[in-house]
Amino acid sequence: MRLILDIAVTHIVGRGRQTLVAILGVAVGVGFSVAMAALMQGGQDDLIAKLVDTMPHVQITDDRRTPPVQPAELAFDAAAIAGLRPREDRRGIINPTAAFAWLKEWVPGRVAASLTTQGVVRYLGRDVGATVVGIEPKAERGVSSLVEDFVDGSFEALDVGGNNVVIGDRMAGRLGAGVGDTVTLVSSSGLSRGFKIVGLYHTGITARDEHEAYILLKSAQILDARINVVNEIRIRLDDPAAAPAVARRAEARLGYKSMSWQEANEQILEALVVRNVIMYTVVAAIMLVAGFGIFNIISTITHEKARDIAIMKSLGFSRGDMQRLFVLEGLAIGLAGSLLGWLLGFALVYALASVHFELNAGGRELTRLPVAWEPLHYAIAAGFALASAAVAGYLPARKAARQPPVDIIRGAT
Amino acid sequence: MSPPPALIETEGLTRILPEVVPVTLVEDVTLAIGEREFVAITGPSGSGKSSLLYLLGLLDRPTRGRLRLAGIDTDPMDEAARAARRLAMLGFVFQFHFLLPEFSARENVEIPMRKLGRLSRPAIRDRAGELLESLGLAGHVDKRPDQLSGGQRQRVAVARALANDPPLLLADEPTGSLDSQSSEQVFAILADLVHGRGKTVVAVTHDLELAARMGRRIHLVDGRVVSDERISAAGPPG
Asked: Where in this chain does the record put each MacB-like periplasmic core domain (chain A) (predicted)?
């Protein structure tokens, strides 16, 4: 094998310029594949991180996926009731204290209860529709990433003094209100109360910054006339990937719809899979084009070396030796191109990671291109390049090795 | 005590090219060539001399007939077995030197030995040097083929053919492209292989004067053996 390797190296070194062009072709393919994969993976990771960070990992609400079994169905085998819709349960989660305690026993993470209702925030005659969330500030800190997005005040300020509210900065802007001003919250049940703004946050997500308001759980229960009611339990897990299992277990026990973040974003995750398929198809196409370069040079070498192939066969080299020789030449070009491509890819990813957007943003808006530093991308790009190189070397090698040496020797003499 | 088997034995060896109109290159050749023989295959152009040599050298497969090398039937051999047989038992010298142009004279001679793998790398290097030296190329071992004269290249080709010490050397017009002086040198080397080193040399030539100085002459016409005569005058040169 060492002899075959020596001959292969001699062949490709002997064609310096052609070899360099082929190596550069592979290197550009590998480099751009790595950069593209880093950018796409980075965007995907960023999106998933946002999904994971900005919403509970598991959300238990007072909805049910299927209506409960009806008494008639339990009493009579022949009874079947179809077309029932689960009722909109205004009572909230039944016995929330027991459910909460049970969850805290085993859930590997933090749990918080809340009452979420729809309402209007009013200030100086301006109305903004809002989702009003009643929370317990200490527990909320454990499950919500919102604590990191406060531009003024905090959740804890809700506990100080009378009726307090924290709202997004965009809502404050629309209302023309600021910290210290008192706004009126009107619930869907028609009750209203004055709340003093004690905090502003900016997540960068318009829907939240403009249409969410947080008050104490007790205040929300009074405002919505639902004393002691909790209609949502939110869970933040140590391992976000465990969310589906936790959701399944909670739903099986409590009977309430328990939705993991993966289920809530199923379509987005499916779209990401499709995006990955597209990305790797493009990577394969790039490497295929690079493979044509290798095919070209190996074809040229086998054509030019037809006489040498014949003479080596006359010396005692087998057809398999000849195939190995040219496949090795293709692989050597593929390997050199891959190594150079890794450097190019690294440089491109580094350059992309250095791009900075000058945005006036304090939330979760992108200020840099999200890139992933993933060794797997380098391995996959090199894998495609080497496979492409092996095929590109094998096809002309097989043809050349099959040619009877006598035909070539006769033609040459 | 029975005599040792002939180095080459053929029975009805025939090679027909399967063209639209089939072309018969070699037809019904039956012969035996023993050890230490110096054989010339002669005949007019297109008489099948080279085709017969390629069949004997396992570079081509006969359409019909049998070929035994050192008593072993080559018919059932697959491609790899034939390649292995060529490597260990046969040496080729062609009209054109066919040296690998990127390698030096020494490296060209080393290649068959490295492929066979019987010797260590230092032993291979020494043997290549010795072979080239014995053929008068001591000062040219590191030169590439394009830095050598025609005669020197052909002597390197002979050294390469002898690298694995094969008992049988097949030469196709080995002096065909050389001037008379180089031609004489190469012929002397081939003769010495037979008389000095005990090899069997089968050489195709259309130079009847050269053929007359070999030990045996097989004459072909239209692919058939028309005469097979031993030349008593043949002997060591000089």
From this structure: 19-252
Cβ distance of A314 and B92 shorter than 8 Å: yes
Question: How far off is chain A from B211, nearest CA to CA, in Å?
Answer: 20
Work out the minimum CA distance from A21 to partner chain B, whole angstroms: 21
H-run or E-run covering A411: helix A405-412
Domains of chain B: 8-230 (3.40.50.300)
Residues A141 and A283 grouped into a single domain: no
Q: Hey, of A9, A311, A325, which one would you mutate to test binding to chain B, going by the most B CBs within 10 A of its CB?
A: A311
Q: Are residues A200 and A168 in the same domain?
A: yes
Disruptive mutation site among A314, A321, A329, A403 for chain B (greatest number of B CBs within 10 Å): A314
**Cα A72 from Cα A79, distance rounded (Å):** 6
Measure Cα distances from B43 to A130, B17, B91, B232 in Å: 107, 20, 22, 20
Least Cα separation, residue B226 to chain A (angstroms): 24
In whole angstroms, give the CA distance from residue B66 to residue A29: 54
- Hey, is A37 helix, strand or coil? helix
Q: Does A313 touch chain B (CB under 8 A)?
A: yes
Backbone angles phi, psi at A176, to 5 degrees: 75, 25
Whether A20 maps to a domain, the answer reads yes
> Domain containing A395: what range?
2-52+268-412
* Contact B83/A at CB under 8 A: yes
Asked if B173's CB is within 8 angstroms of A413's CB, the reply is yes
Q: What is the pLDDT of residues A336-393, one digit of tens each?
A: 999 999 999 999 999 988 887 766 555 556 677 888 888 988 998 888 888 888 888 8
Q: Which ipTM was obtained for this model?
A: 0.84
Residues A205 and A290 in one domain: no
Same domain, A111 and A14: no
* Structural element, H or E, at residue B106: helix B105-116
Contact flag A412-B98 (C-beta cutoff 8 Å): yes
Residues A214 and A299 in one domain: no
Could you tell me if residue A389 is inside a domain? yes
The candidate with the shortest Cα–Cα distance to A165, out of A210, A207, A121, A214, is A214
Give the number of domains in chain A. 2
Residue A263 lies in a domain: no
The answer on A279 and A236 residing in a single domain is: no
- Per residue in A206-230, pLDDT (tens digit) is 888 999 999 999 999 998 888 888 8
Cβ of residue A10 closer than 8 Å to a chain B Cβ: yes
> Chain A within 8 Å of B57 (Cβ-Cβ)?
yes
